[in-house]
Amino acid sequence: MSTVAIPRRQPTYLGADYAIRSWLLTTDHKRIAVLYLISITLLFLVGGLAATLMRLNLLTPNGWLVDSETYNKLFTMHGVVMVWFFLIPSIPNVLGNFLVPLMIGARDLAFPRLNLLSWYIYLLGAAFTLWALIDGGVDTGWTFYTPFSTSASTTNVVATVVGIFILGFSSILTGLNFIVTIHRLRAPGLTWFRLPLFLWSTYATSIILVLATPVLAITLVLVGVERILRVGLFDPALGGDPLLFQNLFWFYSHPAVYIMILPGMGVVSELIAAFTRKPVFGYRSVAIASVAIAVLGFLVWGHHMFVAGISAHSALMFSILSYLVAVPSAIKVFNWTATLYKGAITLSTPLLYALGFIGLFTIGGLTGLFLASLGIDVQVHDTYFVVAHFHYIMVGGMVMAYMGGLHYWWPKMTGRLYSEMWGRIAAVVIFCGFNLTFFPQYIVGYLGMPRRYHMYPPEFQMLNVMSTAGASILAIGYFLPLVYLLLSLRNGQQAGPNPWDATGLEWQTSSPPPRLNFLSEPVVTGPPYDYLGRNAGR
Amino acid sequence: MTDHVVAVRLYVLVTVGLLVLTGVTVAVAHVNLGWLNAPLALLIAAGKAVLIALFFMHLRWGDAQVRLVALAGVLWVSILIIGTMDDILTRGWLPIPGK
Amino acid sequence: MIVEARPTAQRERAALGEQYNTLQQQHATAELGMWIFLATEIMLFGGLFTGYTVYRTAYPAAFAEGSRHLDLVFGTINTAVLIVSSLTMALAVRAAQLGQQRALVRLLLVTAVLGALFVGIKGVEWSKHYADGMVPQLAWQYSGPLSQQVQLFFMAYFVMTGLHAVHLTVGVISVLVMVLLARRGAFPAERHTSIEVLGLYWHFVDMIWIFLLPLLYLFGLG
Amino acid sequence: MLGLPIAPPQASTTAAEIDALVLFMLLGSFLIAGSIFCCIVVFCVKYRRRAGNQIGQPATRTAPLEITWTLVPLALGMIPFVWGARIYLAEAQPPPDAVEVYVVARQWMWKAEQPGGQAEIDALHVPVGRAVKLTMTSQDVIHSFYVPAFRVKADVLPGRYTTLWFQASQPGEYRLYCSQYCGTDHAAMIGTITALQPADFAAWLTSGATATNSPAAQGRKLFQQYGCIDCHETGRAPNLHGIYGQPVLLLDGSVVVADEAYIRESILSPAARVVSPYLPIMPSFAGQLNEDDLVQLLAYIKSIGIPGGATP
Ligand code: HEA
Ligand code: HEA
Ligand code: CUA
Ligand SMILES: [Cu+2]
Q: Is the Cβ of D97 closer than 8 Å to some Cβ of chain C?
């Protein structure tokens, strides 16, 4: 037997064919990644627009810009779009799609057509949701609590729920594809403990995608059924139990918050290794911690319901388990910090984002521990303290990691280098703007300002103005990369195969990679991040 | 191909077993065993499911990953049910409404 | 992991996706993929099982009362039908493994017919509930003291059997598609993966029903 | 707290303890986060890459450190868990002598009823130095009763009763919020809690402006009006005197405690749990009684439930 003849000089995946059709019908994981990149960026702008309007409205205590109905629709749209149509697909579907086959030395994902289908399902879900949001909007909040969503709200709940239901299948198929690919398509010699940490976290994320999303799907179906048929499933007026809804919803949504952080942790591990030029400290425990977070993450959902009327016993169980799930995160933070020790550190744009991630994730995570403490949660539940907590993790953590990863692999994806100076400036602007936006929210939350309020008592104005000012800076910060990354496509320098001089299979092929990724199947002989071994071998 | 070709006889045996168990569970349901009825019926159902998984679905000859996935599926529904029921069943423990 | 270069034989190469090295790898991959999909299905139904458990715990009397309004004859016959269909499906997979084309087509056809029979019987049963006025909201004539909670039981019943029937219908359609393809000889022995994967799905749907039988029909008889 | 306006006034007996826990966690977090940030900054400066081909020095023997920073966070985490749980359990159990106030929430207002019958909308007067227990329910969707100055909050659910208690320690006016999103005017579902010195409170109670009739007495009226007494005081049905809080034997042999949820269920769907040895003849009153009526009936049944309790 001989290897299949792969032509020596292959066109890159971008240059293989320019027709629109060749993009819309592509099964190439790299092209699908680009399709996702474009779609989620658009959806991020939609979510960001809603956030901008909300923040502007909150400049004055009486909510000068929009009325209460509109405001309620804005935060629902913001939450729904940001969570399901931006953050959950962000790293997995863009960077994951692009990198999983490259990092394991495969020619594609296990099920390429399923991968394309997953993108179309995403679009369909987004279309439904956006239509619902434009055609009158929805005012339930992203949590769809019953019986408000099933009986009281007069807005487009069903259409939105259908959109999210559809999107769920996109998540499920992507997760399934990743798990199978990582199990079955690894290059020769690439054992589990030689996998880059990004793959470990993608694998862990996929476990959650696959096992949690179906529960959301069925819960939303039940909400739809109850709303259309007006039969009691969750509405107590008809014999139902609203806490059943909350249990089912959070059974999905707490694990889902780890969908929104684990991939970021994976990216950060890669960035830190690449820019300290050494292996991640305690590689194995960082790898295992990813899976531990995924598994333990399924055991703590009740911490969102401490004051919702669950039993005291249940509250105690969920509280202590929430402290357990913090431990693997703690391990990761400490191991990353320890990796910096005796590294050869370059503070380039991706690393700036990675360090931003560590700092903001730590703050967000530590305030998560406040929330997990029963006594404190009674005070701060459903206040801006919670809003600050999750933005610190999701925006300060995950979005930072996503930006870092995007910059780091940008040369690989596009073959071009972006402007390093603008990169650093944007990173710093985003970091400052972010803190100014969300730090005041911790305080205003502890002072008692409830969330989802379109107006508030005057004593909170000062802090809200600060937050809005920060959000404006943040918006500028996000605007910059949009510009210089796009410009780099035209003006950027050609990137070589390995512009960062990093390890990892993805850097051993050209930038951008050819259609089938590698000219010949790579063989792995050593651990990841082996700068020492690589240099010695030279 | 690696996968296992199973003897027709075994398939037929399993089918007969499943049908018999169905008969048993229906018959037993008509007898009042107090609280035992439900667990017994579920036990029989679980037994039938295991038969199907092992033989019809070739889990008996499946590789480690496939078994792991099957196990995970079962484990995770249990988490969901146990976690939810923990809330429902312990609600009366403190004699205070809402706890 | 076995290192093997991509096969050169024309026939094998046509069956092999570009991302795979060997047919065996491709087969194992598809199988794992289906199992993972089934795990997601377990969770999908798991949500319903949870809801069922919660309400059964809250309203045991009403749920027992509800079960007594179901006709066990339908339930039992349908269970038998599904179990036999699983047998024919398993045999179909076997035929595919061995490359017995004619047997494959026939067994698949029988499986589809049995599946359709199940859905048909279910349909008759549902229409009977309708005639009896036991359909919440659409036709509810039950006037016992626990009407509302019994209604909840019937909601659980309809949602669970409904979702199951949807799955079975998808199964029947897929089997019929396979019949068409199999008649054109699309599944020689080395390409039986699709049949095997469909078989997994079919057995899973059977398995769900096996749990629905006691949950819906049996509890409350004793 | 710290003299900075980062915490609302401490106006209840539990407020100080919660603030103490928060302060403890703040300090701990500053310590942990601070050390991490310092390390990051120092390492980034000290170990910056100098030569182009310089590589980092891989760590050896990472296990001891790693075990430390697995076990230490695990142990540290138990402190806020235990501390928080103690506060929570204390907050969950109202003292027996608490003043009982009934609260009914609906989109988008609060209605509170004092034991003496003074009903208030979006306002509640409470005495300083006495525990007040709220028994709450909602007529439509979920709301949440939140008083930051007291550090208390509990969701208010339709179809169920939840409770919350506090003891005001400072006279003054405090904000009441609805903190569970409940629709259009969620942000306007706010009110004022007025904590008064006991003497002032007594004066307020008798000012009479809002005083109507006590919930229990109202309940007694409903009890007559809806014909409950035709069965319950004639022997056709169990006598409800003294049942509140007591175990009840049911027809199916099981025993339940006659708590709020049970009494509510007995009125709305009597057949769900039938008292031995009675026949399930009681009609359902679902749809005839609104939440206010139910609360008053409940108050009445509870008032005759206290052994030797005075019927107001
Ligand atoms: C990416 C998203 C994400 C992540 C990763 C987390 C992580 C955590 N979250 Fe968060 N959370 C959300 C997103 C997220 N959360 C969202 C969106 C909501 C609100 C939903 C809504 O209502 O709309 C929420 C709400 C929320 C609540 C409910 C609040 C309420 O509504 O009352 C709670 C309560 O326990 C909580 C706890 C935690 C904990 C303990 C962690 C832990 O996993 C954090 C672990 C990390 C660390 C601890 C930091 C690193 C560790 C160290 C630096 C070492 C020191 C550590 C120790 C000493 C232990 N979160
Ligand atoms: C998941 C990710 C995610 C992300 C990335 C964000 C990003 C942001 N969020 Fe969001 N947020 C949530 C998830 C997220 N949020 C969730 C789940 C809720 C709860 C919803 C609920 O209660 O149901 C919430 C709620 C929430 C609230 C509370 C609302 C309330 O309770 O009343 C606020 C208030 O300040 C807020 C602000 C912001 C801001 C300022 C940003 C900024 O980071 C956004 C910055 C981005 C931009 C500003 C866009 C940049 C681009 C441009 C400016 C270009 C101009 C636009 C066009 C040309 C179209 N968010
Ligand atoms: Cu009532 Cu919010
Ligand atoms: Cu959570």
A: no
